[in-house]
Design a protein that fits this description.
This protein has 13 helices and 16 strands. By secondary structure, the protein is α+β, with helices and mostly antiparallel strands. It has an 8-stranded mixed β-sheet with strand order 6-10-11-16-15-14-13-12. A 5-stranded mixed barrel has the order 1-2-3-5-4. It has a 3-stranded antiparallel β-sheet with strand order 7-9-8, with no helix packed on it. A hairpin with a 7-residue loop joins strand 2 (35-40) and strand 3. It is elongated. It starts with 5 loop residues before the first helix and ends in a 41-residue tail after the last helix. The structure holds 4-amino-1,4-dioxobutan-2-aminium adenosine-5'-monophosphate and magnesium ion. Residues 167-168, 208, 210, 231, 233, 240-241, 244, 246, 248, 386-391, 430-432, 434, 436-437 line the site of 4-amino-1,4-dioxobutan-2-aminium adenosine-5'-monophosphate (4AD).
């Protein structure tokens, strides 16, 4: 007999069907005549209720073993449920318990645990309602990403995780080395001699697949990456991870307007698709986590994003009757409080800010005719701030060489990147969407560590994800204490 997924039975199961289910006990209610257990296999938030009748063999012993967290196979017959809130239930005929979960020591006993508590048990938290819903939404969203690009003929390209270039010039790099840290080889100048390292030079974990995606776009026109990205940002905020996933489309023969149009269509598509694939989970987030989740999704799908220049954004921020912690003036980067004010309070919808000052953006962005700004775009959304960063790329060899020089980027490392401008260069553009940020935005989850199964952040590389180092205490937006 094949095992049926619980979500399938809840939707399509008919009375008198003989079925087998497998999963973990969520709750048990013992009554005089029966024992009710709710079984969850992760396929949906709601489990299937099974009824055990005392005529079952070894009834008392089996019931004792069926505590929260225990794993079981139950075979039986479906019946219309007289109980409230469920259409069908399973009358158990055989019950096999694989692994018990001692109620004295199994940590997930309460109905609701705080997210902080759950972060300390990252190996178990996926079995809870909220975290379970998050990962179903995450899966649906990943599926929607591929669907969107594949339908449009974009090639999914796999860019390397180990890389020798620092694409963003941000310096937030993890070094990859096999040098003996107890006995590091030094050059005459007393610097670390990376020529003796595994790759014969210094190598890093990638901070972005963009530059490699540009190579591929010059052959396949439209491509995208979807993979892990690493930044050694020592910031303990609710929106930063050291390891996060990014989606980076890159389009040849495309300018900034085309880039913005694609980004907007892309966000609309993934929201719509997740609502279709996970209606119960999204409803749950709206009820239990943030009551604006469904309205936000509706707003994304149905309203067109605002588009303003950085210069205009600065004007609006200077006019705001509000004291910001960080100063606002033309030339300074926008801080997340500024981004959130614009998206959350002023426009109340996603906002695309374009044409930032050249000095605060990466070397590869196309210089505007004013000589001061570049064709950058950031998409800012309520509650999160920046979720997308992108630009039209500098495709003119001489202009790129000048930018590389002014920004002090080592040109010899970029010979291959310059070759793309020497041979068959075209206007092109792309962007990066932070996958966890978009999941946060979709679900209303306040902390980014709760939307990736195994968060990697300062002091968190194992299954206890909420370590806090002294000195981070002043990190204002590391929001604590919400219930799961
Ligand atoms: O704005 P960023 O740095 O842009 C790039 O990396 C470009 N190479 C993208 C491109 O044009 N192809 O990063 C893009 C997005 C941000 O908008 C944010 O959503 C997310 O990646 N992001 C992070 N998410 C989680 N933790 C971090 N530490 C993040 N840093 C960036
Ligand atoms: Mg950015």
């Amino acid at each position: 007999m094949t095992t049926r997924r619980i979500v399938d039975l809840l939707r399509n199961g008919q009375p008198d069907e003989t079925v087998t289910i497998q999963g973990w006990v969520r709750t048990k209610r013992e009554q005089k005549e029966f024992c009710f257990v709710e079984i969850n296999d992760g396929s949906s938030m709601v489990g299937l209720q099974a009824i055990l009748n005392p005529t079952l063999p070894d009834y008392a012993e089996v019931v004792k073993k069926l505590s929260t967290g225990a794993s079981v196979t139950i075979a039986g017959v479906l019946a219309a449920s007289p109980g409230k809130g469920q259409r069908i239930e399973l009358k158990a005929e055989t019950v096999t318990v694989y692994g018990e979960a001692d109620p004295e020591t199994y940590p997930l006993q309460k109905k609701r645990h705080s997210f902080e508590f759950l972060r300390e048990i990252a190996h178990l938290r996926s079995r809870t309602n909220t975290i379970g819903a998050v990962f179903r939404v995450r899966n649906a969203c990943a599926n929607a990403v591929h669907q969107f690009f594949q339908e449009r003929g974009f090639l999914w390209v796999h860019t390397p995780i180990i890389s020798a270039n620092d694409c963003e010039g941000a310096g937030e790099l993890f070094t990859v080395t096999t040098l003996d840290l107890k006995n590091v080889p030094k050059t005459k100048e007393q610097e670390i001699d990376y020529s003796q390292d595994f790759f014969g030079r210094r190598a890093f974990l990638t901070v972005s697949g963009q530059l490699e995606a540009e190579i591929m776009a010059m052959a396949f026109t439209n491509v995208y990456t979807f993979g892990p990205t690493f930044r050694a940002e020592n910031s303990n905020t609710s929106r930063h991870l050291a390891e996060f996933w990014m989606i980076e489309p890159e389009m040849a023969f495309c300018d900034l307007d085309g880039n913005m149009d694609l980004a907007e269509a892309f966000l609309k598509h993934i929201f719509k698709s997740v609502l279709e694939q996970c209606p119960e989970d999204m409803e749950f987030f709206n009820q239990r986590i943030d009551d604006s989740v469904l309205a936000t999704a509706d707003n994304i799908i149905n309203s067109s994003f605002e588009r303003i220049t950085y210069t205009k954004a600065i004007e609006l921020l200077e006019k705001a009757d509000r004291k910001f912690e960080y100063p606002v003036s033309w030339g300074l980067d926008l801080q997340s409080e500024h981004e959130r004010y614009l998206a959350e309070e002023l426009f109340k919808k996603p906002l695309i800010v374009t044409d930032y000052p050249a000095a605060i953006k990466a070397f590869y962005m196309r210089l505007n005719d004013d000589g001061k700004t570049v064709r950058a775009m950031d998409i800012l959304v309520p509650k999160i701030g920046e979720i997308v960063g992108g630009s039209q790329r500098e495709e003119r060899l001489d202009a790129l060489e000048r930018r590389i020089q002014t920004m002090g980027v080592p040109q010899e490392d970029l010979w291959w990147y310059l070759d793309l401008r020497r041979f068959g260069t075209v206007p092109h553009a792309g962007f990066g969407l932070g996958f966890e940020r978009v999941i946060q935005f979709m679900t209303g989850m306040t902390n980014i560590r709760d939307v990736i199964p195994f968060p990697r952040a300062p002091l968190s590389a194992d299954f206890r994800a909420s370590s806090v180092r002294a000195g981070f205490a002043n990190d204002l937006d590391f929001r604590q204490s919400s219930l799961g």
